[in-house]
Write a structure and sequence with these properties.
alpha+beta, 5-stranded antiparallel β-sheet, 18 strands, 36% helix, globular
Length: 536
């Protein structure tokens, strides 16, 4: 008796006819390419489809519907610390859109770019530089190999003047679960130029439904780029006493309210976090609990000249605007901040050269600090680099032999806890104490940053770094993440984005909004085949 093909086998045969056999990966190849994840979770990956042309997607989705095979789209699959390329639920076929990497349109006068999912920060930077266009890439710490579209759909943010990346998105196009196409009403009624220049369109705003959802596969996006200003500077300062955290936050809130636009953001990092970016992991000096003892943290802080809190801000504008902003910042932080510096790219490069002349360990430390500052200024100037990526390797394996960093493939253990925290001194202190207690309880170092999203709100990023090859360490990290979410929610802090493993629990916390989302889901995807479980 002839054996009937399984639904997946039948779908794969049809997908091969549409995409070509080499673009349909088997279970083994798909698992190797998309299975590794920094959070330590595992998912069965039955197959993967490499989509090279958006024109193929409608038929790809119709085939998935005919055979009831669930699919999960990724832009580049480099969502490190949140799930990488893995689906929320097992046995989803990965739709890899990284091969769709064209810049479809660029308005050199207005600074609006329309691009596909596979366009990375590095690709856009090369495009702008090669054409001498005076605009900035909306950079993030994830590095030049990560998708711009994917980050915007996750409502990510960065360090350039348009910090909220989806806020800068004006128009998008998507393919729905049944293979039909979505275009914004303004693009259809008013034309492509108006759609690129006006975010809200006309009628009910529906483009936002495609962020943090599985309602469609976004195939193109238009995003505003900030024009490169006359001056880009970073502001560095320290808090020499932990007790200065509360007044510093109140002053930061005042600065951001007074200098919108010129000051794009002000961040605070605790000493632990800065050490993770500056000093080797002291594996041979850990305490009985497997953590760096507080006395050693203090010792390393003195050695590397890192105070309890380090501030980092970005300034953009004309020379006179930035000079005036510097005076305002100095006045606002007087009596609170120490060792305040305002550095341009030229300043950082000069410091780097001077450090090379100094002998011994002091010269090496200064050279390392100067190099980090120079790369940070490049990032603030809209030029993507890997400045922040070494954090994932602090207590993890080194990058591959070619030097390219891919934390998921390289075996790094990393989970990001990224809650929203109101910009109030006392509340921020309570948050720091909660994070410190929970992370230490689970054997995680309390690495903490406050990043301003406005003059009212921080996003805090806490990287949970662990040995991904140790099942006990993986379980401890995941338990820590779950408790951080639970304890934070009890006190009024909740993440703006979560890992794929945390998504299935959201429905119990967001019942009223989920009712509407489920109604939309049933209407658009009745068999729940497109990114099932995503943010639900």
């Amino acid at each position: 008796m002839e054996t009937q093909p399984t639904p997946l086998e039948a779908a794969a045969a049809e997908w091969q006819a549409v995409l070509g056999p080499q673009q349909v990966l088997s279970r083994e190849a798909a698992s190797a390419a998309y299975g590794p994840d920094t959070t330590g979770i595992e998912r069965s990956v039955p197959a993967a489809l490499r989509i090279l042309d958006a024109a193929h997607l409608p038929e790809v989705m119709r085939i998935a519907q005919r055979h009831r095979v669930p699919v999960y789209p990724v832009s580049t699959g480099r969502n490190w610390g949140y799930g990488s390329a893995l689906a929320v639920q097992p046995d989803c076929v990965i739709l890899d859109l990284s091969g769709m990497n064209r810049i479809l349109h660029f308005d050199a006068e207005m600074g609006v770019v329309t691009l596909e999912p596979g366009v990375t920060q590095g690709m856009l930077a090369d495009f702008l530089d090669s054409n001498n266009y005076p605009f900035m890439v909306p950079t993030t710490g994830a590095g030049p190999s990560c998708s711009l579209l994917g980050n915007a759909l996750e409502r990510g943010y960065g360090v350039t003047p348009y910090t909220d990346h989806f806020a800068a998105v004006t128009d998008l196009e998507a393919v729905l679960a049944d293979g039909s196409r979505y275009r914004t009403a303004m693009r259809e009624a008013g034309g492509e130029e108006l759609a690129r220049l006006f975010k809200w369109g006309i009628g009910a705003y529906s483009a936002g439904l495609f962020t943090q959802s599985g309602l469609g596969v976004v195939t193109r996006m238009s995003i505003l780029l900030a024009r490169r200003p006359e001056v880009v500077k970073v502001c560095l300062f320290s808090l020499k006493d932990d007790a200065l955290l509360e007044p510093a936050i109140e002053r930061i809130r005042a600065i951001l309210g007074k200098l919108p636009g010129t000051v794009a953001g002000l961040n605070l990092m605790n000493r632990h976090r800065v050490l993770a970016m500056s000093a080797p992991y002291p594996a041979d000096r850990l305490g009985a609990d497997g953590l760096i003892p507080p006395a050693l943290v203090d010792e390393l802080g003195r050695q590397y000249q890192i105070f309890p809190w380090t501030g980092f801000g970005t300034l953009y504008g004309t020379r006179r605007m930035v000079a005036a902003a510097q005076k305002e910042i100095r006045a606002a932080l007087k009596g609170v901040a120490s060792r305040m510096l305002f550095l341009s790219q030229d300043n950082a490069n000069t410091l780097r050269r001077v450090a090379g002349w100094l002998p011994g360990a002091a010269g090496q430390r200064l050279a390392s600090t100067a190099a980090t500052l120079a790369r940070s200024l490049e990032l603030a100037g809209g030029r993507p680099n890997e400045t922040a990526l070494p954090l994932a390797y602090w207590r993890n394996p080194a990058p591959g032999a070619d030097g390219a960093r891919n934390p998921a493939q390289d075996g790094c253990g990393l989970i990001w806890y990224a809650p929203l925290v109101p910009m109030r001194g006392q509340g921020a202190r309570a948050y720091v104490e909660m994070v410190s207690a929970v992370t230490r309880k689970h054997g995680m170092e309390p690495l903490l940053t406050f990043t301003s999203l406005s003059d009212k709100l921080f996003d805090s990023t806490v990287p949970l770094l662990f040995d991904r090859h140790s099942p006990a360490a993986v379980e401890a990290a995941q338990a820590c993440y779950r408790e951080l979410i639970e304890r934070g929610r009890e006190q009024g802090w909740f993440p703006y984005r979560v890992t794929t493993s945390a998504m299935p629990g959201l429905s119990a916390l967001t019942q009223d909004s989920q009712q509407l989302h489920e109604r939309l889901r049933r209407a658009l995807d009745p068999h729940d085949l497109l990114a099932p479980g995503r943010y639900r």
